[in-house]
Amino acid sequence: HRMWVCALLGGIALPMLPTNLLQRLVLQPGGDKTAVSIAVDFSHVIRLRGPWALSSSVASALVFAYLLSVLFGLTRLLWRWRRTRELVRGSVPVKQPRRIAAVVREVARRLAVAEPEIRCSPRVNGPVVFGRVVVVPGDFFDSGRIEDISAALAHECAHIARRDCTLNMLYEFVAVLVTYHPACWWIRRRLAETRELVCDERAAAAVADRCRYASSLLRLATAMADRGARTPIHAIGVCDANILEE
Fold this sequence. Notes:
The protein is mostly helical. It has helices at residues 2-13, 19-26, 42-49, 56-90, 98-110, 140-143, 146-162, 164-175, 182-207, 210-227, 237-240, and strands at residues 92-93, 117-120, 128-130, 133-136.
């Protein structure tokens, strides 16, 4: 996951660096005096090929297209953030049974986080986390097994422990600068996948062994499929990143 974070940040930072700085980083002087090295500078290629330049109309069109892509990315990000806030504001606190409250408290203790606030909403078909708020369907605590509830809450508490909501918002905001590039889409997908796998690792270690945790994920995914997708905001991470098989 850290490698893909570095890939995203590097893909944005490297093109902004001055050319001479990149040359100093790549073509460092010194080293073995007996070694033979050949350096081809970009200016050499220019002198061989001759000068070239874009017309002002083409350059303006490219700049306009880039700014339009940035505006589109920002608009989409703000729209999703607004929908998320509306979902949380529209949810209501859950009256937890004593056994469920004990599970929430124990899971939070094992993952070393403050006990999250549990709310319910008819707009979700599985547990989702926003900051320190976990939103669940209205019948989530009534129809699920206690080990499945514990697994789902452990996964969401792992997100809270990692501050994934804040970090993901930061990554999405930074990625707006290169949202036009197909490689950016791929990197963001890998970020989501590895983030969920990290949380699964933590949750499995906190609640039970891997086999029991995997069985709980399968039952949760089946229950979500039976409820039907009532919102594009998915629940447990295996469905959010489309990596149920992994």
